[in-house]
Amino acid sequence: MQYLLGIDLGTSATKTVLFDTDGRPVASASREYPLMQPRNGWAEQNPEDWWQAAVQTIRAVLRDAKIDPGSIAGIGFSGQMHGLVMLDENDCVIRPAILWCDGRTGEECGKITQLIGYEQLLAACGNPALTGFTAGKILWVKKNEPENFARCRKILLPKDYVRYMLCGVSGTDVTDASGTNLLDISTRSWSSMILQKLMIPQELLPPVHESCEIVGSVTETAAALTGLKAGTPVACGSGDNAAAAAGTGVVVQGKAFTTLGTSGVVYAHSSSLQIDRLGRVHTFCAPVPGEYALMSCTLAAGLSLHWFRDTLCAEEI
Fold it and tell me: Model-level pTM?
């Protein structure tokens, strides 16, 4: 029998599930990690915590399932979107990752809109400049931590960092890249126009793939840490909501879903590119090659519940 392994890099925890090829879960494990808020409105995490959580949950799943790791036919990823991970020339993390729910980049978002133009930005990437997105975070580091920006050789999104640690290949997928304010969603490639105007070198960004593409395989080093078999194929994966769409069958025109996790989302699939010219609804690339998604998000749903639990429910816990 063959199996598939799914790794979801959430904001609160990493969840790893082993499925059989009929989609039935066989074993699962979850590991939480801290959310750092050094200032009001800021949100950061240590990417090494993500990787250690992935290693621990993979080992736990393999232990509980009692299967031959060689029977895993492939590994896929989903994860929190928009975060900024910066690596130096030795692939070491330069600073804590700035997360999707971090609100420090209001000034940078205004600058992005000024440099590119509101309508041109919407036409290119389907979204206005938002504090949750990655471009503003890059500009914030460039302005406020120039020594860190000068050291940067790779920029990755959160799930892509964990996949990079697993297979040693840098890359991202179109759904996650859609949430950076840097992707031309019509061509599904980095926008040279936006990058030039923001003075962000394209060589810092990873290659862009469709979600279903195989981008690498488990390295010998990662195999020794996780218990996986070296050479196991690894798919690019997708942002968390795009993965939820694929998992719930929202992959054809007219289907939609809502989900409540750390954030709250309403998501609809579209077979064609549609952009809200008033910027009220996000337009992203879908995990279906060549197709698109419309979505709207509130930044704190489960995150608010998590705060309530940890702040006011110590006795109940």
Answer: 0.92
